[in-house]
Amino acid sequence: MPDRLTSLDLTFLKAESPATPMHVGTVDIFEPPVHGDEGFDYESLVALIRDRIAFVPRYRQRVQQIPGRFAGPVWVDDEEFDITFHVRRSALPRPGTHAQLLELVARIMSRRLDRARPLWEMYLVEGLQGDRFAIIAKSHQALVDGNSTVDIGQVVLDSTAHPRETPTDTWQPEHPPSALELLAGVFADATRHPAAVLELARAEMASLTGSTSVREVLGDVVGSLAAQRHAQESSLHVKTSGQRRFTTVQTDLEDYRTIRAAHGGTVNDVILAVVAGGFRAWMMTRGEGVGPTRSVRAVVPVSIRDDEDDEPTSLGSRVIASTVNLPVGENSPVMRMHQISYQTKVHKDTGRAVSARSLVGIAGFAPTTLHSLAARVATTTVRPIDDVVITNVPGPQFPLYAQGAPMLASYPVVPLMPGQGLSVGVTSYDGKVYYGLNADRTAMPDLAVFAQCLSDALDELLDTTKGSRNRASRGRKKPRSAPKNTQPKKAGS
Questions:
Q1: Alpha helix stretches (DSSP H) within 72-145
Q2: Contact present, 244 and 444 (Cβ < 8 Å)
Q3: What count of other Cβ atoms lies within 10 Å of the Cβ of residue 221?
Q4: Is the backbone of residue 35 left (phi > 0), alpha (psi -120 to 50) or beta?
Q5: In the beta sheet, which residues pair with residue 25?
Q6: Within 136-239, where are the H helices?
Q7: Which domains does the chain have, with CATH numbers?
Q8: What is the pTM of this model?
Q9: In principle, which of 102, 186, 200, 393 could form an S-S bond with 370, CB 3.0–4.6 Å?
Q10: What are the pLDDT digits (tens) for 396-446?
Q11: d(Cα 392, Cα 119) in Å, to the nearest integer?
Q12: Which of 80, 246, 58 is nearest to 145 (CA)?
C-alpha cells in the first residue's frame, strides 16, 4: 500500500492559504562550468534532475485523497509526471541585475504549488550579469521530512566539478490504487496502528469542518489576547498578504569568527547578535520605541542528537524549536551578544546539540534539507506572540557544483508564518554567510533598509574587536571559484 501522509504533513496542507504558502525555497547563483566548452542551459538542468530524481522518489508522487476523507491521504505515483512542468525556464533582460533577480524570486515564491501534481518546482534563470545563472527551487513542507525524503537540492549538487555517475533510472509509475484498495488500506492501517489512524482522521475532519477542542479554543483566546498586546508594540506582526518581497545580504564568515574570538560564544551567537542589532536599527528608522526592556521573540530551530552515541546525519538529526529573546533594547552590541550567548548556552549544556562541524562533515551535505526541517518545526511550534523565525544552517566551506557549474552563493527562502511580516534564513557556504530575507510585500516596503541595517550591525560588532578586523581582512581567504565582483557585501537590492 502507498505511504500515508502523517498528521504533521496534514498540518502543513491545512495551514496553507493564499496568504501563507507552505513551501521552502532556495536561490542558488552559479557561473558557467569550469571544464570544457559546454555551457549550462535548460536542457542541462532537465537532464541533471532526470538523472538524480531517482534518489528522491517522493518528487514523482502526488497527494491522493481517501474517499469520504475519513482518513489521511496517501502518496501515489503521478502517472502523468512531466519533468518539464516542474523544471521551468526564465530569463532576465541582459545584463540582468541582482535586484531584478530578487523581484523574480519574490513573485515565484508568492505562488502556491499545484496540489494535483508533485509539490515542487525549479526554475533556471538565465541572463544574469557576468554570464551567470540562477536556480530557484521550492518544495512544499509536506514533501520534505528528512527521513523518507530529502530536498532535491541535496542530490543535484556535487563536491567536485566532475559529476558523479548515477545508475540508469528505470522508473515506471505504479497505477494509483482504486477507491476499494484505498479503503482496504485504511482498515489495514487501523489494525496495525489504531492510534495513528485515529489521529489522522481527527486531523482530516478538523481540516474539513474547522472544528477544534474546547482546550484549543481557550488556548487560542489566551494566545490571541497576549499576541494582541505584543503586536501593538511591533511592526513585525501584520495581516499577511499573498505577495512577497525578497532581498539578500552577503557577508564574510571570517568576520564572524573574528567577533567570536574576541567575545566568546559561537558563530551562531554572532549571527543572532547581528540580527538583533539589525532589528534595533530598523525599528529606530521606523520611529518605534526601543526601550531597555524591548526584545524580539525569535523562533530558532536547532539540530540535536537523540542519543550521545548517535552520529548526526542529514536524515537522522532531530530538529527542535528554541525561543531566543533578541535584546533589541540593549544599546551595547557586545552586551546584546553576551545576552544571546547566555540563552543559547542552555541547549549546549544539554549535551545534545549537534555541532556545526558535525553537520558539515556529512558526505554530500547541502543546507537545503535542514532549512526545510527547520521550517517544518517552526511552522508547528510558532505562537502568536512570536515575532520572527530564523533558520541558520551551516554549509560546506568548499565549492559545490551543478553539472560542473560552480555555485557562488546560496540564499534560503523561509516561508512566512500567519501574522508575521518577515522570516530570516541564513546559510554559511565557502567562506561567506548568506542571508535570505523573505517579507510580506505590503507590510515591509523598507525591507532593503533592514538588509542594510544587518550589514551595519555586523560592522558595529567588528568595531568592538579592537583592530582584529584589519588583521582578519588581510588574512581572509576568498572563495576559490568566485569571481572578484560577484555580489556586494551590502544588501542585494
A1: 83-86, 98-110
A2: no
A3: 10
A4: beta
A5: 138, 413
A6: 153-156, 179-192, 194-209, 214-231
A7: 7-208 (3.30.559.10), 247-394+417-465 (3.30.559.30)
A8: 0.85
A9: 393
A10: 889 999 999 999 999 999 999 989 999 999 999 999 999 999 999 999 999
A11: 24
A12: 58
